[in-house]
Amino acid sequence: MIIRPAAGADRSNVAALWEAVFPNDSPHNAPLKVFDAKLILQDGMLLIAVEEEAVIGTAIAGYDGVRGWLHKVAVLPEYQRRGVATALVRHAMRVLRTVGCVKVNLQIRATNSEVRGFYESLGFKIEERLSMAKHIV
Fold first, then answer.
1. What's the angle, vertex CA 64, arms to CA 61 and CA 70, rounded to 5?
2. Residue whose C-alpha is closest to residue 35's, from 16, 56, 49
């Protein structure tokens, strides 16, 4: 397995992976829309895990100058529990460190205890915060 930044040629494979892993995602998170928006930034932080030419996992990292974020950490079901997500998160954190990031945040659904345990195993901790959002489109 290799981890590398996504390129335009990966678009349909990444979208298919996200559709498989996040089948009930909100319309504003439409896979092709998210892929295209991140690739426009040309920051190299849309990461993909590839095995034998197949995209098997993804992680989007972002940095706003204050803190980093992780989004769309996803692994095809048949490759889960093989260390792919761990490798993607660690790789994303190395990339974020190279741009000066000192803290990484992420959000998960409160009911997703399995994913919570995964992130806790990587050293993430729950912070007492209220997450707020507003759609502007």
1. 25
2. 16
Cα separation, 33 vs 126, whole angstroms: 30
- What are the chain's domains? 2-121 (3.40.630.30)
Terminal Cα distance for the chain, rounded? 38
What are the tens digits of pLDDT across the range 15-53? 999 999 999 889 999 999 999 999 999 999 999 999 999
pTM of the predicted model, to two decimals?
0.93
As a whole number of angstroms, the distance between CA 83 and CA 69 comes to 20
Measured N-to-C along each axis, helices 11-21 and 31-41 cross at an angle, to the nearest 10 degrees, of 130
- One-letter amino acid of 41: L
